[in-house]
Each structure stands twice: as C-alpha cells, then as structure tokens.
Amino acid sequence: MANSSISEIDQTAVLVTHLAQICLNADNADVTFIVKGEHLPAHRIILATRSEYFRALLYGGLKESKQNEITLDIPAKAFKYLMKYIYTGRLSLKQMKNTDILDILELAHQYGFVDLQTAISDYLCKVICMDNVCYISRTACLLDLNSLSTACYTFMDKNVSNVMKPHIFRNISYEALFGLLKRKTFNTDQVNIFKAVHDWCRFNEAKPDKAEKLYNQVRFTLMSQHDLLNVVRSANVLDPNRLLNIIAEKEKSSELPHRASSLLEMTLLNDMIKWYFSGATSWSWIGVIDLDKLFMVNCIRVEKSNKLYSNYQIEVSHDQQCWTQVAPRTGSFNFWTVAQFRNRLVRFIRISFVRETEDIASIEVMYIKN
C-alpha cells in the first residue's frame, strides 16, 4: 500500500501565497472598485467564485457587469481586509481595531460571507469588554446576530454598575438599549434604570415615540413611592394619571415584575452570616444572609462543620417581609443539608433552629438549569 504522504499532494499553502500576491494587484485585473476615492483592482472570476453577491453583481446582467469601474459606498479599509479574505481565506483579527472588525462584519453580512460572519461573531463574543460592548451590541442588533447580542447582554448583566455610568450608557444604540431593558436579568435599583434611561433620551435627543417605548420598559412598580413622587414626577415624562395608577398597582399587587440575575453560584462562609439569638429553645440561633441584590435561585446547600444531628429550617425572601420555607425541619446526620425548589427570586436567606453558630461551615446558593 502506498504511503499516504507520497500519494497525496497538498500544496494549498503555495496556492494561498500565490493568490495573496495578486490580491489588489493590477496585473491581469479586469475590474476596479472605487472605494472612498481609492482605486482597488480585482479579478471578476475570483470574486464571483467566492460570493453569490459578486457573481450576481459582475455576471448577472446588472449594469455593473458591463463596467470596468464600480463605485462602492463602504469603508475602504474594511473592504481591503475583505478582499484579502476572498483571495486567501485568511484574516487575522487580533491586531485589528474594533471599528475595523465591526466594519468587516457588516461587509461579510452584506456580501453573504456567512462563514466569515460567524467566525467574526464568535471572536467578538470572546473579547467583549467595557470599552467595546456598546459598539458590538449596536452592530449585533443591526445585523440581527442573536448569539452576539446575547453575549453583549450577558456581559452587561454582570457589569451593571459600570454599564450604568453615563459615558458608557449614552453610547448604547436604541435597539440594543430596548433589548437590554426587556431582560429580567438586568438587575439594579429601578430608580437608577429610570435615571439612566432619562439621561439617554435627553443626550441622544430621542424622538417621542422611541422615548415612550424605552420608558415603558422601566418597571415603575418596583420603585419606592418616594422615588416615584420625587424622581419620576419631577422628570415630567409620565402622565399624572398613569403615575397614580402605578402607585395603586404597587400597593395592591403581590406579584411585582422583579429583575434578577439568572445564574448564581455563590459560597457564603460562616462569617458572612448575621446571627441572632432568639432564646426560645435550646435550638435558638437564627442566621440571615443578604445577597445584596435579587437572584434567581432554585437550590441551597448548607455545609455543616460536623455530622451531629440537626434539623435546620431554611427560608428565602425577596424583601425580608414575606418568607417562603424551602427546607423543612427534617433531621439528618449528614454533612450537607440540601434544599431544591422551584425557581424563586431571592435576596435574603434565613436558617433557623441552629444549636451553635459554629455548626454551620458555609452555605452554597445556586441556580441549576433544568
């Protein structure tokens, strides 16, 4: 049997090198693109072979198919990078500016280079940071790239306080901002969201219809009556009757549209628990934990410091007013007490009937996807 290294000839690297040499080279070129005043030579057959868009443009009977010079209203630098990709199938993004990468992404979408679009989108998902998230989310929404939009939103969810800073928030596009505000997981004080949206509308001179749609995404019933009367009313963006309706709904409704982070895996050590001694029985210690903000939770595990018999009771709450028991007092000699329950919005956790505070080593709080 012949050795595969001898029977198979692979000189694709040489081919790519030769094609790279004729990219944007006037030798044997049969069409020139005029982009922002620059004359960029190309070869019709290569472009048509690589792209249905260019096949239709150059051979489909359009007026351009008979022209030697074709003017395109696109970024010149991005088009040069695209031409390199067309001729070689290669493109190095690492040293490029984010603006150039986003321009290339738009051209890949416009000219139907699906594989390039996917590759750039995947790359951007990995390099999202505070300096570029607004611009990436703008392009993702413009091109309807769901996975890239989701990656931007997830980053914003995890960095709410920084995203809310005016010099960042003002640069979010309307489409991206609307999508962000619809998410239950964009979790911060609602009055801060209102202030940021109000500032965005003024800074970007939002048209009344767009401003109204953004304000409608603010969950006013989660705001205190003080903030409604002193912050929202003074902004003069809501009809007085609607403001009264919001206050009435807030007072009578028990199911308010809370926001919460959807994923949580947090370990809380003993010294993070506030202990209170009730004095009612020998099992008199009560521990309360404040997670600082709302999270979607469906599992709590209590790690004990020993295997001594225990029958703790675990309760959760979003406001410290209404508590729900998620683990009844069922005794065990295990190191762990595990409570799994349906998805709940949780900020506070209370563990009762503890003999000694040192009995609890840690508490793990988590959200487990179904």
From TrEMBL:
Domain BTB: 29-95
One GO cellular component, as annotated: cytoplasm
InterPro entries noted in UniProt: BACK, BTB/POZ_dom, BTB_POZ_domain_cont_9, Galactose-bd-like_sf, SKP1/BTB/POZ_sf
Superkingdom of origin organism: Eukaryota
A GO BP entry: circadian behavior
One Pfam family linked to the record: BACK
Residues of the signal peptide: none
Residue ranges that the Swiss-Prot or TrEMBL entry lists as coiled coil: none
UniProt cross-references to PANTHER family, sorted A to Z: BTB/POZ DOMAIN-CONTAINING PROTEIN 9, BTB_POZ DOMAIN-CONTAINING PROTEIN 9
Protein name (database record): AGAP006689-PA
UniProt source species: Anopheles gambiae
